[in-house]
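User: Protein folding is very new to me. Would you mind checking the protein record under this note? It all follows right here:
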Amino acid sequence: MTRLTVDHNISSRINLMRILLISGIVFVHVPHDPATSPFLGLNGFFDWVRVFLVDSLFRIGVPCLSAISGYLLFQRGWEAFNYTKTLRSKARTVLVPFLIWNLGLFATVLVIQRADIGIGYFPDLWNASTRETLSYAFATEGLPIDIPLYFLRDLVVCIVLSPILAVLVRRFPVPTLVALFLLAIIPGLTIGIVLKKSILFSFTLGIFLALNRVDLKAVDRFAALGTAVLLAAAVLLSIGLYQTGPDFPWALDLARNALSILGAGGFWLMSAIAIRPRIGQRLAATGSLSFWMFCAHFPLLVLMWMVWNRVAGDDFYPLFYGAAVVTSFIILFASNHLVSRTTPGLYEVLTGSRGRKAKLSAALKSHPSAGATRPGEPAITQQHR
């Protein structure tokens, strides 16, 4: 089979989607308590916007990013896929960062809770059972203590299963994709091997697109229409969710799950428009910043919530929400720049060698002939509430 390579436009759009979706995750993970739930409607339009962002639009992020991961894993075809080499590579780029960031937060919480700090903001680690502790530390059965990192855990599982998924989707593409899609969208169905079941379908879909050399730019002429449909569907869904949440009717929950997966197509079409202006190209060139944001944002947001509750409590929550998002972006951008420049070795470990890949990419752009015979593989890794 002819090898499939990712051209510059597709690579840039993948990088742009990653930074945009992971930025959206920051909005999703701004903490709140029952008194500041958006479904109480205490803040009117502001609360609807929160539902639109958190429970509708940016739920697309995980399925979209996992589809890209599956696609990139098999972009060079089945014959070029080396399972042993892949496992070694992904252990460095996915598993090690997951363990460092999650266990780092786990150890920090253990220390501060010993001093009666952080109780109620993080799980009570000192009184947790052994099974609960293992999940908080390694995401064995439930969410890790750094909640968004469950995606890296599930991505590792999908990578381990990738040869099986590839064989199934090569021999029985329709039954495999239909079964995984139904499993992903039907409320109440569970699967023990991944924490978020939509990841398994989306990752497999990405494999299917790569192995069948699907032209990802073939429908770009419908970019404006696809973007409009995506936003309209997300708005309509958020209206229903806002009126019925937090306990959604079965049909609405089904629609929410379906949009989170099907909306990935709309986001891809949106990227065809967003990559054109200079700002889109600049965002696509931010490299490892997106992974740094993904791993570091949750503890930062919780820390700000802890400080805010000591100062203002539940008052002025919209002010906290906006300030937390803006402050997070500033701190994450500044810390990414600082650590990458002052301790590049540590930065490479924390970002799974993505800092080194970014430097290599910049070097290849300066000297295109140096990498002409070795097409690069854009890294992708990025949420759940």
Notes: Residues 360-385 have pLDDT under 50 and may be disordered. The chain has one domain: 8-371. The first helix runs from residue 8 to 28.
